[in-house]
Design goal:
This protein is of the alpha+beta class. It has helices spanning about 5-30, 35-60, 135-165, and strands at about 65-80, 85-95, 100-105, 120-125, 135. Strands 3-2-1-4-5 form a five-stranded antiparallel sheet.
Length: about 160
């Protein structure tokens, strides 16, 4: 569930960046094309979408009975470079109901214990799409973290709006 950014998230991020950049430039030149309240509402909606979109998708997918439990083995790890640093990507191997072997990369994976090559993790696989997997603990933990981040961002935006008036 928590893979790389989807097309919708990239489009919302770029649109939000362009809108806020345009708003900032228009404020610098005192063009006042939009009222500040409108800019804050757009910022709130964009932030809410980016922080809560995957959580809603996870809740919708979890409530379906189309998933079955399985286990996957970590085949390898690799460092994905991002900016000045990077993050660890896990390559897992699992079998679906038809005993077909699949290999998938997990880019956003959360675990309390450190995982090594050869460790086994529990997954849920979609019966209709064997590439759609859910990592129950990891996805739930990331969903909670994203909700907290979203609530903090939204609270900060509301506080800015209240103090601006």
């Amino acid at each position: 569930m928590y893979n790389k950014l989807g097309k919708d998230e990239i489009i919302v991020s770029i649109s939000l960046f362009i809108f806020l950049l345009g708003y900032g430039i228009s404020e610098d030149y005192q063009a006042n094309t939009f009222p500040p309240e409108f800019a804050l509402i757009v910022l709130m909606i964009g932030t809410a979408y980016l922080c809560f979109n995957r959580v809603v998708k996870l809740l919708v997918n979890r409530n379906k009975n189309n998933f079955y439990c399985a286990s996957a083995v970590i085949q390898s790890t690799k460092l994905v470079h991002a900016g000045k640093g990077g993050y660890i990507c896990y390559v897992i191997k699992y079998e679906d109901e038809s005993n077909n072997t699949h290999i998938k990369e997990l880019h956003n994976f959360f675990s309390i214990k450190s995982l090594d090559v050869g460790d086994e993790i529990k997954i849920k696989i979609d019966k209709n799409d064997s590439d759609n997997i859910i990592l129950p603990f990891s996805d739930l933990a990331i969903a909670i973290i994203m909700c907290v981040i979203g609530i903090v961002f939204e609270t900060v935006i509301i506080i800015i709006c209240v103090y601006a008036h």
